[in-house]
Amino acid sequence: MTSMPAIEIDVTTNDSSFSSQESILSNSLSPQGHVRHHSDENLNRFRSLSSKSNGSFGNESGIIGNGYLSVREEVKKRSNKVLMPIANLLADKPNSRPSKEDIMKSYSTAIEEYNKYTIARWLEYECVMRAIVCLMLERDYIQLEQFHRDHTGKYLDDMNTFMDHHMKAQICLNSAAMYKEMNFLRKHAFYARLSVLFELHSADGSQRTPADYRYVYPTLYKSLSGYGIRPTDQLHTISESFLGPAELQIKCLHELYTAANRAELPDAAIRHICHLLQVYYDFMEPPASMRLFDDLDSLVKVLPSTHSLNQALAVDEGKIILPAMQLTRFPMISSPSVLPLQPHLAPTLAKSKEMPSIFIYSPFAAKNENGLLWVVDCPGEVEVEVKNCRDIELVVRDLCLLADGVKFESVPARLILPPSESQNEPTSRIKLIGVPRAAGDLFITGYSCQVFGLHNVCRFQTSANKANRIKVKVVPPLAQVRLECSLPRAPIEEKNSEPSSEATVYSGQRFEHTITIVNDSDVYVRYVGLQVRQPTVAGGPPLISIDEDSGIENDDVAETTGDLLGCTLGPKSSREIKFQIFGIDPTSTADDLSEEEKVLESVTPLASAAIAATTPETESSADMDLIPYTGRLLTCDFIVRYQSEVITEDDEQFYERKSSLPIAITIVPAVTVSAWHVLPGDTPFSRYIVVDVTNSTDHDAELMYTENRRMNVLPKETCRVPLLSPCCSEVAGGAFQLAKMRGSYMMQKMEIERLRQILEAHVSRHLDIKWAVPSLKVEGYVPVGCLLSSVSLLKQLVLPAISMDFVVNDTPYVSEHDVAVALGQVVQIKAVIISSLEDPFDGFLSLDCEQEISHQMGSVNVAQHMLFLNNKKIPFRVTKSEENQENLEKCEVEFDVIFRVEGNFRVRPLITPSAEQPPLLPEDMFATPIAFSVATKLV
Amino acid sequence: MALPGKEFYFAIMGHFDQPIFELDFPLVEKKTKESIDTRHLNHYIGHAALDVIDEHALTSPSMYLKLVDKFNEWHVSAFVTASRIRFIMLHTQRCDEGIKQFFQEMYETYIKHSMNPFYEIDSPIKSKDFEQRATTYGRKYLI
Fold first, then answer.
1. How far apart are the C-alpha atoms of A925 and A56, rounded to whole Å?
2. How many domains does chain B have?
């Protein structure tokens, strides 16, 4: 037993060999596994042998330094002859040059001799190891491995009672160190683990103490590299690629965790459990992973303070430093995206002076506009995808964003993630909130949280496992302007915390309100522009109109940007603006129609054969709701753009924000227009607009129209209101016909719209119907926007190209009464032909006679019942006379006729244009037929 | 019929030392604790033998490397393909000729399988057909 001390291995020196080899290890490990090359080994050998602090295999075995010439001294002598050392040695002594085979044969003979004596067992083992060293120096690894296997196996056998399990463990450690020297990491790991098994072997059934486990813990930890585990990696990827033998890795890590736990190293045990769960969760059976979670929970409860996974952990045993780790699997947080600030807080860069661009669209300009900006002291949001891969609920506490660059305060969040039923379960998206406290470039790098009672800090990663830092530009504090309205506030939406107002009006009512622009901040606002977004009305007053005398002046910027109003606003100041809400006809707005039908037709003309003949199909087929109509909710927005007086990098730009105040206006129909009809007026130059007005309320309504005329309308009833309106002479007779002959559809639309606006301005003065509901004490105007937007109505108020007026027997004919004549009586009919055309008009005028049979049968042509005493067809020419005030042309033609049959007759004028004149359309001529009542004897 | 104590464990090891296909002979229907422990031991022995196999592959021109390692009663034979995919066979009794033929047949089978465009190199082989062929060749050459 004298040789016993020689083979005892000092674990501390053993450890130093591991640490000294780590650099070599890390170099030799490649993604190709443990593939080695001889060129690498030469380098390794040179490094390891030439190192003065070498504590490698020679020291570990303890054999070589036991009174013999140590390998280290030999190496020092022959450091310049590292390669093929024995050959070089023999080359110095040419007379005695034994070959490698001779040497190995000598060793074999010696081993055989030692084997005969049990007491010389340690000498035998020392001889074996010396032979192995020789083979190692010769780099004959295959023979070395075979030699080692053949001669050391018996020492580890159970039959070998000369050595106890501690000695066998040391033998295994020697072998492990030897294989590590050869860079046989897998063999090294195998023998290191075998040594642990021997070390912990209990022959007498005694319990192992924590000290025993502390003794084997470093050996187990340092054997991980042999199984493809890189414990020094801070980032444990959860990708299955390049993982290696997962089952072996799980078992090795589990053994390591068990050793750490039994060695009373709870921090290390926690770290190893987290490593297992992080990387190998998908490979483990649910019961196994559940046990690990239970163990983790128990360990966490034992610790006096919270374990931080982001801190490196020093383990005294073996001088091991466990690196920090990121537990990115629980929960899985990925795909971070920075969200813009809320619409009323998000700034954009605006140029100080809007210059018209020569490009309709420029991608560079668009890119500039879309730049993401955060503002100091404004909470910003980062949206991330969160997934719980466990099948039980996961609670995450204090989930915060981590950021660099500028001062940043994160708002902690608490998540309770539901269990996932399958691997492919969709992720949830949540928003993490943080507030930047200084201007500059902010980099959002990751997140921290408390999970399983551990403090976990993780970085955001790209799909390629690279750090994903999101850059956000934080701008200095900006002015914040809000809008206050005299209307009551409405409930806000979940996604938008901006205030909103609401109002309820009857159609046709008009109310005045105020809106106040308030600057709460200490920053001067160099420009405030006000816009109103509201439903488009094709005719009549809009839903919201700003009072012109609201006290705010339009400045130059407002004119260029299209804002209704523009002004400046000092710190802690406000401006008040008056506006009116008008209850437009709620049945339809221009926004409801498609692009092709922007001209609004919300009411239908009265059913009339004459009108139907002249009204185009598209205009006569307006859809009406069949559902009883009770009201309509319309929304409009006051939008304020304001630029803060904050210096930017580019002096020509300013930070601009928008603030809006949505107003929900419920319009309840009161007295509305349901149908209309245009009838001839008292003269050729006037028309009656007959409007059917419906009282939609449940109370009696009073109507006041045409100055002092009054009418009562019962609830839910309709009454007919005639409104006399003069024809518009500002639009020529064939103007609409000419507009339709324009070159393009857009030109036609624009021209028709221009004509419509002229007519609207003319007619709107005569369509003033007031209503009042005394029981409700409300009153207003009947909204006639639908009439004013109807082209088919307005075009009937255009003075036709040719109008005719009649004088019968020297009495001007009024269309309200029939002319009573006797049978055979000579009737003198003087026709006054009036032209609104620019050029003179030539043609022939004749008269046609119809007899009205009945309302159902209509009328028949009875020209033979009327006899002409002079010409049947008279030529005429209408020329312009300068003295005519209305700038119209007139011509008079006389006919003398007699009726030879009793009855009611209608005499219509017929105009035949001369050959050089353009054809005359029916709508170009307006003439009221003359009604005659022919009797045998006049009363 | 298998001789008593005649056991085989065949594994195909990928480039990252991960077993991409494993098969035991004789076939075990149910996973007993003993078989699981044996499988773990086989993993350790097979994994440790990879160092020796790689060393042999560096020096030997042939694909079939014969017996390369041994631990207790388990012998380790190996075969290295042209693409450095390693076939290892752990066996309790020497059966060199049968193992060699088995490796040859499995090599051809593996080549055919790896030519499938839907198969990704180094990914686990889950083909029933592949397993069936391995079983057939095992019965033919090993047992």
1. 119
2. 1
Nearest-angstrom CA–CA distance, A929 and A751: 33
CATH code of the domain covering residue B133: 3.30.450.70
Q: Cβ–Cβ of B15/A149 closer than 8 Å?
A: no
Please check whether residue B2 lies inside any domain of the structure.
Answer: no
Q: Are A907 and A847 in contact (CB under 8 A)?
A: yes
The answer to whether A576 and A515 have CB atoms below 8 angstroms apart is yes
Indicate whether A895 pLDDT > 80. yes
Which residue segment(s) compose the domain that A228 sits in? 207-306
Does residue B58 fall inside a structural domain?
A: yes
Q: Which whole-number Å values give the CA distances from A244 to A311, B11, B15, B83, in the listed order?
A: 27, 14, 8, 17
Residue A104: CA count within 13 A, CB half-sphere? 17
Please give the model's pTM, rounded to 2 decimal places: 0.67
Interface test with A, best of B18, B42, B83 (most A CBs within 10 A): B18
- For residues A221 and A315, what is the distance between their CA atoms, to the nearest angstrom? 11
pLDDT in tens, A472-504: 999 889 988 888 888 888 776 666 667 788 888
Tokens 């590590």 belong to residue:
A180
Cβ–Cβ below 8 Å for A34 and B44: no
Which residues of A are less than 8 Å from B75 in CB distance?
Answer: none
- A165 and A50 within one domain: yes
Q: Can you tell me the ipTM of this complex? A: 0.93
Pick from B17, B54, B56: CB nearest A245? B17
Say if B22 falls within a structural domain: yes
pLDDT at A557 over 60: no
Do A761 and A898 lie in a common domain? no
Whether chain A has a CB inside 8 Å of the CB on B121: the answer is no
Domain of B58 in residue numbering reads as 8-141
CA dist list (Å): B137 to B9, B10, B63, B104:
13, 11, 19, 10
Q: Is residue A107 part of a domain?
A: yes
